[in-house]
Amino acid sequence: MIFQQKLTHWRHSLKAAYCDTKEWMEAQQYLEVDQSGQPRRSQISKRNNWKRPESGLVKCNYDGSFYNINTPAQAGWLIRDSMGVFKGAGQFKTRKPHNALESELQALLGAMMVCWSQRHTKVIFEGDNANVINLAKRRTKNIDTT
């Protein structure tokens, strides 16, 4: 795979996506402290269940990270078909975003470019940032010009 003028073997991308997913899943588990002060995993787990797209469509889940304006953000995506079959995944560093919204939009743009380059024409993009969703559905307008 060539992305941003860098040749990356697909196995490296797959391994990075796997590690990122594992790290994310571990981070989502809430840790409590018991009476002895030792952390323990809570039995309460808030997890969203992934829903398959309709037949003939693929779903691309994407996410972007934002640390500060001086640090390149990270973005990643995962593509699955209507049967839930893995069709691809990847990650990349984005430009230095000015805020979390810009980072999420860069992640969406990168995911769109990958889907287009892989000839996926009927794609549902799914992210976790409400501002991106509201902008895409024209519920709000972004007037920040800085």
From TrEMBL:
Which organism is this protein's natural source? Brassica napus (Rape)
Q: What is this protein called?
A: (rape) hypothetical protein
Query: Which CDD domains does the annotation name?
Result: RNase_H_like (cd06222)
User: Recorded GO terms, molecular function?
Assistant: nucleic acid binding; RNA-DNA hybrid ribonuclease activity
Which SUPFAM superfamilies would you find in this protein's record?
Ribonuclease H-like
Any Pfam family from its record, for instance, is: RVT_3
Q: InterPro entries, per this entry?
A: RNase_H-like (IPR053151), RNase_H-like_dom_plant (IPR044730), RNaseH-like_sf (IPR012337), RNaseH_domain (IPR002156), RNaseH_sf (IPR036397)
**Which PANTHER family does the record cross-reference, listed alphabetically?**
OS05G0353850 PROTEIN, POLYNUCLEOTIDYL TRANSFERASE, RIBONUCLEASE H-LIKE SUPERFAMILY PROTEIN
RNase H type-1 domain location is 61-141
